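Example record

The entry below shows one chain as it appears in the dataset: sequence first, then structure tokens.
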Amino acid sequence: MPILPIDTGRYGTPEMRRIFEEESRVQKMLDVEAALAWAHAEVGNIPREDAEKIMAAASLKHVKLSRIKEIEREIKHDVAALVRALAEESGSSGAYVHLGATSYDIVDTTNALQLKEALDVIENKLNDFEKILMEKALKYKETLMIGRTHGQHALPITLGFKFAVWMREISRHIERIRQCRERAIVGKMSGAVGTQAGLGEHATRIQELVMQKLGIKAADISTQIVQRDRHAELVCLLALIASSLENFAIEIRELQRPEIGELFEPFEAEKQVGSSTMPHKQNPETCERICGLARIIRSLTIPALENVVTWHERDLTQSSAERFTIPEACILTDYILFLMNNIVANIRVDEERMLKNTELTQGRAMSEAVMIALTKKGVSRQEAHELLRKLTIKSQTENKHFKEVLLEDKLVRSKLSEKEIAEALKPKNYLGTAKKQVVRMVKKTMKERKARGLV
């Protein structure tokens, strides 16, 4: 009976859940055992016909999950149970199953196989999201909106500029994933303490052959386990990706407030229900879900970092913890990426409201532009700043448009004409290099995507 939301199917994409399903993991463990038998035959340690029998038996079609669990209930060891079940199905050739290996040769190599598939899925979604953001950055590169710092109106930007900033953050995550996979996706065939003693004189070659057969790299050196700094780095990276997605989700949530009303996550008007009691509600619940699950992903960094610590050549403290951390981190990161891709691809933008909101402060948000204009006319920057600080307070206190207050000030009027004041107060005139930056960052991203073999 399913208990956790991943088990019930509430969270997680089908493609990622399949990677971490019990049946999938057990089959990969059998694949590792089969590759080990094949490698032994390649170097002449065991007869080839025996290796072929083991390879043929190493499938859930023959080694039943129910039988593995039956044995495990008796002997209290999951890998040993799998070895016995495979040996049973291999007949007399079963004598060679798991020859020279330790449990975590199988487990860690299986981890690597799962992570290889999982990171492919995550990287593909990151690539998709990067492209979505690139398209949005270009589409809205001239869409004027107010930039905010500390939650307050700051200076004008464009929506495309905001999307371009997000795009480059995702580009960096893609680079990190590609670098991290080189360190995280490694298997091993090194025996009980890493010396490969049980594998005989061809031990190094056996490890090479097993990893080649499985399509992954071997750890350069290991103890009984692959060192957990590799997995900790990956979980921390997934937490970093989740934090970026939460950052984007919070921005959308904030801008969806009725008082702001600039961006809105998709809402299926025909069927979707926002509240069980308030019919009018259109809540940013998907963004809120992303934020909540990002907290869970970040929490997984603690046990992942704790798993780096082990007694001597290993203890068993990592085992129980990473049965949660690795699948959950991958499944939930992939899931919130899936959600965010859909949100941004189908985001609703109220450009008219964005433009209207730039005037909420009655022109005061353009005070820096006026300050710069004054400095060009010979006024000290510090003097201009203090003057405009006082004039913005006067505008707010007296509820007067900033332009009116500026026109009343003698110093301002002695330096700037009414037309110059009006031009300085137009948000579209104070975007700096925002549009050029969007174009430049899109070109940079396209070049990087081409280098990855993407368009």
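Notes for this example: The chain has a mean pLDDT of 96. The chain is about 65% helix and 5% strand.
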